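Review form for a predicted model. The reviewer records the input and the model, then writes brief findings.
Reviewer: anonymous (R2)
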Amino acid sequence: MAQKQADEKRIGELFIRDRIISEEELQQAVMVQQNQPMYKPLGEVCMDLGFISRTKLRTMLDKYRKRIRLGDLLLNMGRISEMTLMNALLMQQESRGKLGQILLMKSFITQLSLTNALGVQLTIPTMTPDTDLIDKNLLKEISANFLYKRKVIPVSRNEKEGVVTVIMNDPLDHETIIDLEKIFRVEIEPAMLTRGEIDIILDSLLDTWFNASDGHAL
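Model under review:
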């Protein structure tokens, strides 16, 4: 607990040092964080309060290498116990696998809990898209083959900020992000599915709204 509070304090100090937030905003964020029913990192709280954008938060965490480890995050969120984490880490040493997948395989956590935790850890939004709310104009700018091959779903375009939000099977796939930026000619905001398979959503979406011959292959 003491280590967690120290880490949070250092992050808050970095935000102030870089003039991202003020002392008053930091104090408010800390108070909100302390009164939340479930743990949420200080940076996420600042983002929820509108003190910092998601993009800026991600940049700051990358700059100072302050991303919380997945196991510690799940522990802080009350999703796993210390004993469960220790056992999973031992399994990881033997298998060299990813901790999240080990916890999932052993049924220590659900897919939804893992996705939500990864979203917090990576500062990436999670969503369950309503196909009726997806901007169909985005589908006219990209080929069906690209969507299926790269496992991505363009969702919305923010003209003011020059950003297209895209659900990705792997939101850390920088090559695909670069290719998407070439296609849409704007910055890409990666997002993750809270549940379900991308292929299932693509099947439903493209069968109704998309004619592959109208797309533009990369």
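Findings: The beta strands are 126-127, 152-158, 163-168, 187-193.
Further findings: The first strand starts at residue 126 and ends at 127.
Recommendation: see findings above.
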